[in-house]
Each structure stands twice: as structure tokens, then as C-alpha cells.
Amino acid sequence: MRRIQLSFAPHIEVEFVDREQALRKIEEWAEKGMVDVQLVYGPEGCGKTAWLKQSVELLKELDFDVIYVNPIEKEMMMETGITDVKTRLTEILREATANTWARAAWAVVDMTKELIKAGRKKVAVLADDVFQAIGLDKAAIYVKGLLGLIEYPPKPYDVVIAVVATSEGLSRREIGRHRWADMRPMWNMPREGFKQLYEQLPEPKPDLEEVWKLTGGNPRMLAELYKVGWNQWEVINGLVMRKNIKAFTTSLSNGEKKLLVNALDDPDTLMSREGIPLMNRLVELNLATEIPEWRDPRYWIDQPPPEKDPELGIGRYVAWQTPLHREAVKRALEWVRQ
Fold first, then answer.
1. CA pair distance 284, 171, nearest whole angstrom
2. pLDDT at 160
3. What's the per-residue H, E or C state across 8-74?
4. 25-45 pLDDT tens trace
5. What pTM value is reported for the model?
6. Dist. CA 162–CA 138, nearest whole Å
7. Does residue 245 share a domain with residue 136?
8. pLDDT score of 104
9. SS in 3 state form for 173-192?
10. Average model confidence (pLDDT) for the chain?
11. Quick one: CA dihedral 55, 183, 70, 12, positive or negative?
12. Are residues 175 and 195 in the same domain?
């Protein structure tokens, strides 16, 4: 399979690496099909988009018609021989603006239906971060629309694959209220795969161990560090401002602040009656992630995180999205105390 090139930073492209288990999951779905939509969730920047884009290449080689959409990045692509559907996609892209990319996300469902109507037997739709565009309140309806392609197709088919990837912390709970999707967590890159990505970056650069302890294997955080000349404090301050963490920590009661301080060392302290409301707010801000207690790779997209890793901020039930996210919260707490 051809490995795609991905934009990593200005004037820097990298080759897709690792994620072999995640790609095997695509092959498994391609062979056996799926009963429900697959909702893949995980930390921001953990590599969901890169995996989906590489999956387009894999599915194309497996003779699938594929539609990929990412409204946030304003990107759509299609691999199909059906001229009419391709023409419609071209028109959507030509007319798409910041206000109409949500409509483009909905159009993907209709275009996939058109492919099945046209007699295509193996069809895949990969929807990347669509909930940010259409709104969390419509997330479940969107998933139900994709499920309709599997359960009530306009024509018989061999295999239909429907995957939705999200970094939205609350989308899992919203969609989990229904039985329309299988929840598939994805974590940051494992150390060996992260090393392969790190090695593609030009010198000078910090030692791999130092970068690993800052990013926890998150490709986007690696890119952020690279873009600012490896200045970790610039990245941390950027997280504080972008996610408005100072206002968040200021709003906390003294008891909540104490809970948060304890969670910096052990995020599992949030998995308590007193801590869960605070954990939910951290999940909503995409600072922390609730981790399923099972680490069985069959239920994960690629390798799960370790059972516990205090250095990286990973607990059994709760984890900071990356060590840099944890440091951003710590820095904001220090400012509030001053």
C-alpha cells in the first residue's frame, strides 16, 4: 500500500507511519462489513485524520468507492468511477464557504446513497470532525443518517463502511445515549511509531526522550513544538489562551481547585462523586479524556494507552490528553493563585 504524504508544518511534509493495527481494523471492516456506524474518538491531534486519509488509499486498493469529508479543514475527496456523483462533489467544493461546509457534511450522506443506487457494491464514507461543523445537537441525527445507509440501503450491496472520527469530548456521551454506533477509542501514537515520525523531522531537535515526555506521542503537539522552535512554554501558553484555561480555573471553587491540583499528579482522583463534575468540564474543554477501563486492543483503534503512566498523566480511568495539556492547566492554576 502506498504511504501518503501529510502536511506537518510549513514547508515540511512527512510520510504516514505506524498505525498498523488501525489499518488492519479497516481491512477487517472491509472484509466482514459492519452492523453499526463506528465512532472513533480520542485526544485532539492524536492522528485520527492521518489514519482516515491513509484509509482512503487502503480502501481504494480494496476496490471501494470512498468519500472523505473534513469540514473543519475544508477538505473533501472522493474515489469513484461514477461521473455524476463526482460532478456533484466538484460543485459542492466550488460553492463551499465557511457557512456551507456544514451542508457539505450532510451532502456526503446523500452522495453515498447515490453510489449505492448506482449499483456500487463496496462503499465507504469517512466523516472527520463533522460534529464541530453541524453542531453537537445534530451529532446523533448525523450518525443515524449514516446507519440508514447500512440498514436501509436503496439497493443491495456487499459492504458499506461508515466511520465518524471526533475530538469532541461530549460527542461520545451524546451519541452513546442511542445504539446507533460502536464507540472506538483511539490514543496517541505508541512510542515506536512516534519515533518514526520524529525521525523524519530535520535537525536540530531535542532528544527523543524529552519530546516524548512533553507530547506523550501526540503528533499535533509534536508539530506545535516544531513550529515554535521547540519552545515548550510557547506551546503551553498557547494552550492556556486558546482553551481559555485561566478563566476556567478562576471559576472553580476552592474545593474544585484542590481536586484539580490532585488530578495533576493522579487524574484518577477525578473518578469520584466529587470529581466527576470537574472531569466532565475538563473533557468538554478537550483537556482530559475518560478512558474505558478495559485495555483490550480488540475494542480500540490501534494500541491502547498503558494501564498507568504518571509521568505522561495517564491513569486507569482518566488521562490528560498530553503532558503539555496538563502543564497548561498547572500554569493557569499558578496564575490564579498569584
1. 9
2. 97
3. EECCEEEECCCCHHHHHHHHHHHHHCCCCEEEEECCCCCCHHHHHHHHHHHHHHCCCEEEEEECCCC
4. 999 999 999 999 999 999 999
5. 0.94
6. 17
7. no
8. 83
9. HHHHCCCCEEEEEECCCCHH
10. 92
11. negative
12. no
Does 74 lie in the same domain as 22?
Answer: yes
Please provide the DSSP assignment of 196-234 as one string.
HHHTTSPSS---HHHHHHHHTT-HHHHHHHHHTTT-HHH
203-221 pLDDT, tens digit per residue, is 999 999 999 999 999 999 9
Task: Say what the alpha-carbon torsion angle 254, 259, 260, 265 is, to the nearest 10 degrees.
Answer: 140
CB atoms within 10 A of CB 279: 24
* Side-chain half-sphere CA neighbours of 245 within 13 A: 28
Domain range for 263: 191-337
Residues above pLDDT 70, as percent of the chain? 96
pLDDT in tens, 178-188: 778 999 999 99
pLDDT at position 155 is: 95
Cβ of 338: how many Cβ atoms within 10 Å?
4
Instruction: For cell 484518577, name the residue.
Output: 268
Task: Give the domain-ending residue among 185, 216, 246.
Answer: 185
Alpha-carbon separation of residue 217 from 248, 299, 326 (angstroms): 26, 20, 14
DSSP 111-171: HHHHHHHTT-SEEEEEEES-HHHH-GGGHHHHHHHHHHHHHS-SS--SEEEEEEEE--TTH
- Assess contact for 322 and 43: CB atoms under 8 A: yes
Residues 288 and 223 in one domain: yes
In the three-class reduction of DSSP (H, G, I as helix; E, B as strand; rest coil), residue 98 is classed as: coil
**Residues 133, 194: Cα–Cα separation, whole Å:** 30
* CA pair distance 275, 256, nearest whole angstrom: 8
- Asked if 48 and 113 sit in the same domain, the reply is yes
- Residue 169: pLDDT band (50, 70, 90) is low
Domain end point (choices 150, 185, 220): 185
